[in-house]
């Protein structure tokens, strides 16, 4: 449970500030002044001390630091697969807000017509390191719960939560311009977080998108999609999958 802004100083902050603080309080995550300005787009001169939340944040930053090391090492292994176009860290680690028991969420973006080929290879390649379905906890294991190919970069669920997830995601591997394209194709997020969307384009390493297509792989991709879909079907609940995307734990 978050520690919501107290009445003593609530009236001193703008509605935009309060809404932003309330959102992050759901995750026990107190913002700094710079972070509050990034997400709300409004300047703030001061913030009150919030010792309980600040203590939680410092502890989780320590846990997150160790998990970042794992994420980068495993991303380097994944990047050896030529069909992987980009890798993003998502979820709590993207915000340095991990509990000790947390796994490491990755979004993997592949080239067109190769998503299910890549997923098959990753599941075999990462047998030792990945979180398996049904595991209640999997500390430090890799959870590839979001897959997209470069023809399916648009997130169709438009909400404040999805906007935050898109802009919080940290790209740790980009074969060339995928992060830039991902942001541009989800320009709808600026309706929710205009300042954060604008700021997210600063300091991108690659801005020229390299589109690579291999139509010879299309048939193999469809076959592996169908085989994996048949395997998953009896256990599926809210998962959303298709030839060019897979959302394994979507939040409505």
Helices and strands in order:
Layout: H1 7-10, H2 15-25, H3 33-40, H4 51-78, E1 84-89, H5 91-94, E2 104-110, H6 115-125, E3 142-149, H7 160-168, E4 170-174, H8 178-185, H9 194-199, H10 218-232, E5 240-242, E6 245-247
Notes on the structure:
- This protein has 252 residues and is of the alpha+beta class.
- Helices cover 41% and strands 13% of the residues.
- The protein has a six-stranded mixed sheet with strand order 4-1-2-3-6-5.
- The chain is globular, with a radius of gyration of 19 Å.
Order of helices and strands: HHHHEHEHEHEHHHEE
Question: What spatial form do the alpha-carbon principal axes imply?
Answer: globular
Poorly predicted runs are: none
Structural class: alpha+beta
Portion of residues in beta strands equals 5-15%
Report the biggest beta sheet as strand number plus sense, adding barrel if it closes: 6 strands, mixed
Give the strand tally.
Answer: 6
Give a concise summary.
The protein has 252 residues and is an alpha+beta fold.
Features:
single chain, 252 residues, alpha+beta, 10 helices, 41% helix, 13% strand
